[in-house]
Amino acid sequence: MAGFGEYLRQAREEKGFTLKDAQRVTKIRCRHLEALENEDLDAKLGTVYYRGFLRAYARFLDLDPEPLMEELEGMQPGRSATKEGESSPSVDKPTRPIRPRPSRSRPRRRPLQSGPSPFLTFVVLLLLLTAVYFLVIRPGDANEDIALPTPTGNDVGEVTPPPLTPDPTPPQEPQPLEAVRDDVSATRTNFYLAVDELELVLTVEPGDGNECWVRVVVDGNREFEGTLQPGSERSFSASQEIMMRVGKPWVLDMVLNEVQLGKAGVPGPAKNIYLWVGEPEE
Known about the structure:
This protein has 282 residues and is an alpha+beta fold.
């Protein structure tokens, strides 16, 4: 019986997703997703993190996470417990030999010295130097000549004209948005747009027999799945990505943030459309 790792891998491959696609949506690194599929969990990271990884990965693949979580719980490594009744062997502390305490003779007290203390002498000397500075040396600074500034023409009454203000730079027109298209295969196309969030408008071409089945997943959550009638319009907003599967891509027009993307595809099989925020990875 296949484990939960093989079950995750089969579900991902059936939906046509790669590990990088799953990393974009779940924000989980590829090496952790691969560890879940191989059931080779890193003991340093701990199973607490893998519980959250497994739950998010299962929801991304439209799987029920509870049975998978039960299998993950069974893989938790056992913890070694201390046996009751065991005690650490006691170690006798070595006794130190008692040494005789040497006799100490009481030091003789020195007689008090008469006269002023050194600190008091220092304070008196500092006060005398300060008085000499302010009474003898400092008044001589008042006899020095003070250089006065020479009056200029502006001081006499001339009016200085105000500085010329340069003409304000005309505002630059914003550059039009341009979506980057990447045709991965005949059944998959990626679009990248450097914006903060995505605004997608889908319009079905009018005409008999132009009913179009569409499934839309917004930021990892299934937003819509059903058949759009000819001439109908539907809008979706996302902060990171929008993933679509279109039954008749040749009858579905796409507008992303007011950028015309054209038809979702040409007549043929169903197609997967991925729309991402940002630039494509190198």
